[in-house]
Amino acid sequence: MKKFRRWQRILLFSLLCLTVLAPILFVSVGKFFIRFSVRGRKELISDLSTLRYRRDSVQLNAIEQEEGEGLKGPKLVVYDEKELDSRVSYSASEENNDSKKYGNVGEIDQVSKRSQRAGSMSIPFERTNHESREENQQIPQETVTSRSEAKGQSNQTTAQHDQNMRSPVRRFTDEKVKQMKDDLIRAKAYLSMTPPGSNSHLVKELRLRIKESERSVGAANKDSDLSRSALQKKRSLEVTLSKASHVFPDCSAMALKLRAMTYNAEEQVRAQKNQASYLVQLSGRTTPKGLHCLSMRLTAEYFALSPEERQLPNQQRVHDTDLYHYAVFSDNVLACAVVVNSTVSSAMEPEKIVFHVVTDSLNLPAISMWFLLNPPGKATIQIQSLVDFKGLSANYNSTLKQQNSRDSRYTSALNHLRFYLPDVFPQLNKIVLFDHDVVVQKDLAGLWSLNMKGKVIGAVDTCREGEPSFRRMDMLINFSDPFVIKRFDAKTCTWAFGMNLFDLQEWRRHKLTALYNKYLQLGYRRQLWKAGSLPLGWATFYNRTVILDRRWHKLGLGHEAGAGPDGVEQAAVLHYDGVMKPWLDIGIGRYKSFWSKYINYDHPYLQQCNIHE
């Protein structure tokens, strides 16, 4: 009994060892066979390359046998390493063709053996190579030059041949995708031609095929994106379309239905474009949440200060006519900061700069607090509110609101304050006015020595067709009115606001503010010009404008078409005119960096309000 149990234990132990060792043995044997197969494959490739040279000798022997002893051997060309790559691709293609010609390796061996039995008529490849090398040493230099030219031509021919062979593949990579989309349109047209409420077998099949094909095509743009099942569904849809063509054989009805579908698609595209345009305009008129948060935080900090701490330094210099005076009218904290910082950092003599910032009473605390925390270096800054100017009476504000425009930019008092510059700055003789959507890249001291020739305003022209900022007088001014025709010429070159030099002495002498008020009132009585300050500016400063060099002022960085790369980095002032302002999400990305580099995004208030680059 004990022996039986002992043998039973030995048997169980042996089976356990066998189950453990068997997988290890199988894995090791499998690795051995894999290595052997890879090694055999490499040997097979080396044998094929050897057979390649053998086949060349066969072709040479065949030529010898046909033509006789008088035929010279082929002249061998010694290639450089650079030329070798171009020949390798061609040799590979020859090798593939030859392999098809001879069938398999066994046939190649038989051909090579028959060539070796040819006797004395056969010339070995190695010997021919040696003799031709001796002949090449005796060839004159001119012959070598002609051969190198021939080699270059053959290489170019080979490259062109390869390109021509590959070009059809590139050209028709999306042929099946386009065909499937066209078949989908046909299927929907057939489906719409069926009677309402029809539930026939063809209708069910069309609906099924349309659903399957739409899932298969998805967002595919080229044939390689399609799966095998997609190609099968494509064939199924073609069979269903063939059935539908027998049921609806009238081609005129099909053409009419496709025309109606095309019209509906165009109407949908037009509606989508109008909606997108409206949303872009709406986005341009709204204040981002981050800017609103920043204004609220700065306002709270400002009112926490005492009246003495709210005073800005060097206020005694704001009326010095020997300094360079710049002005910006805005209710945007970040926009004002960029205009001031870029102007001061680009100036050769920043201590001569005086900045006048005018805003509304709501944003005065926030802008004042920003420049108290971030003073503009050696420059002087003055911040004023609209309520500080008695010239802008309540009557004027109510007059502006009569403008037929929903855009607050056109009805804003800050937008029309530019026509009261002599009243806003009575002690100054010259001033440069910026829009708040500009960036200064160069020193502007050269503007102050510009000869104004008795004119009032200096500006860049906008009368070049094909540019995003192109304008004509008749685009914004109604030249069908007799009053307009008598006083203005529609072909007069237009100009732009954004960066303008004003001679305030000439302004006062011509009494242009009173002329502006006259035109403003006439515009309310009858439709003379569109809403906004630009057409009123063209009328008020008509024939009183000096055209500046375009390098002073680059326009169009806020338009969808863009300003183009020419002259952006060389311009003294970049103007983001248009809806796509750089502080908005819809701003043009390639131009944002010129604006954002003048903002310190590590500022704690910007971090707290989630304002990032």
Structure write-up:
The protein has 613 residues and is an alpha/beta fold. Among the domains are: 176-284, no CATH class; 289-608, Spore Coat Polysaccharide Biosynthesis Protein SpsA, Chain A. It contains 23 helices and nine strands. It has helices spanning 2-67, 81-102, 105-116, 125-137, 141-171, 175-193, 201-217, 228-247, 251-285, 289-303, 333-346, 364-373, 394-400, 408-411, 413-416, 421-424, 473-476, 482-487, 504-510, 512-525, 534-540, 589-596, 604-608, and strands at 324-329, 353-359, 380-385, 430-434, 438-440, 457-459, 499-503, 545-547, 573-575. The strands form two sheets. The chain has a seven-stranded mixed sheet with strand order 3-2-1-4-7-6-8. Strand 2 (353-359), helix 12 (364-373) and strand 3 (380-385) form a beta-alpha-beta unit. It is flat and about 125 Å long. It is a single-pass type II membrane protein.
